[in-house]
Amino acid sequence: MMMKKTLLATALVGMFASQGAVAADDSAELRKIIEQQQKVLQDLEKRLDETEKRVEKTADVVEESASESKSATTIGGYGELHYNNITDNKSGKDKKAIDFHRFVLFFGHEFTESTRFFSEVEIEHALSGDDKPGEVELEQAYIEHDFNEMFTGKAGLFLVPVGIINETHEPPTFYGVERNPVEKNILPATWWEAGAALNVKASPGLAFDGAITSGLKVDETYNIRGGRQKVAKADASDLAYTARVKYTGVTGLELAATAQYQSDLTQSKAGVDTASATLLTAHAIYSIQGFTVKALYAQWDIDGKEAEALGRDEQNGWYIEPSYRINESFGVFARYNEYDNNAGNSEDTKVEQTNLGINYWLHENVVFKADYEKVGGAKDADGFNLGVGYQF
C-alpha cells in the first residue's frame, strides 16, 4: 500500500508540473493534458491493484505451504545399553554381560487437535527369533480423543496406569542402570494391555483413571511377571478392571493409588481352581530444589488353593529412593528395595536390594549411569552396573 501511495504522489506531481508548462489561456490544450494524466493515473491504479492481489495470493500460498510442511506425524524413541558385573555368592552363577537392552521407536499422528494416535515398537536384547535372546514387541498402539477439557478417552493397546515407572521409563527420567526390582517383579513393569480407558480431570491437580482391559494369565507357578500376555492372541476369558487416583495439586508433590481386580488370573484354565486377584499399589514423589524422594508399595492378594499351597497367594514389595540433582549434569541416588513373590510361604523368601549410584547427563536427553548393587535376604549377590541411555 505504501508503494501505491508513493507512485500516485509522483504521478500527481508530474501532472501539475505538466499543467504549469501550458499557457493559462490555452484551456483546450490544458483539458487534453489533464485527461491524459487522469488516464495514466487510472491505468497506474489498475496495475497497482493487480500487483497487490498477486502479492497477497503469493503470501497465502507461502503460508499454506509452510503450514502443510509442519507434519502432524511425529517420530521419537529411546534406547539403553547395559553392562552388568554381578557376583552371585550363593549359586555361583555370576552375571557378567553387556546388552543393548532396549531399542524403541515412537510413531504418533495428530488427526485433529482432539484426536490423536500413538504407538511404540520395541526390540529387546538386540536380536529376536529362534534361539535368540530378544523380542520384537508392540508396546503401545492406541487412539486418544479429548471429549472436552475434562474427559479424555483412549482405546487400543496401552500401558496400565499403575506405579511410577510403568508409564514413564525412558532412561534419562530415572536413576540406576536397571529399573527397580519391586515394580519389575510385583507390578510387573513394563506392563501393557488392550482395551479402553477414561481419564477424568476432576479439578486442577486431581485426576481419575479407569480402564477395562485384557488381563494376566499365570501358569501353575503363579508368577505375576510371567503372566503378561502382551496382547499376542491374548486369552480374554477374564478381563481386568483398573482404577487410579492421582493428585499433583501441590508443587513438587505427586500422590497416586491404583487398584486392579481380575476374576481369574489363570483365564479360567481347566482343572485349576478359580484364582481371583486384587492388586493394590500406592506411591509418593516429592521434589524440592534438587532433592527428590520416591516411595512405592505394591501387593497382590490371590484367592486360590493352588496359589496358597505355593505360598504365592500373597506377593508384595516396597522401595524408597532419595536422590539429589547436584547440577544440570550430575545427580546421585540411593535406593532400598524389599520384595517377596512368596510372601505366603512359611519360609523367609524376602529379597532385599540396595543400589547406590550416579547419573551424568551429557544432554538433558542423554545420560550415562553407574551404580553399585548389593542383594541380600533370600539371595546373596553384589557387583556394579554401567549404562548409557537416550530419548528423543
UniProtKB/TrEMBL annotation:
Report the leader peptide range.
Answer: 1-23
Q: What Pfam families does the database record attribute to this sequence?
A: Porin_O_P
Q: Per its record, how is this protein called by name?
A: Phosphate-selective porin O and P
Q: Which UniProt keywords apply?
A: Coiled coil, Signal
Which segments of the protein form a coiled coil according to its record?
27-68
Q: Which domain of life is it from?
A: Bacteria
Give the source species: Shewanella pealeana (strain ATCC 700345 / ANG-SQ1)
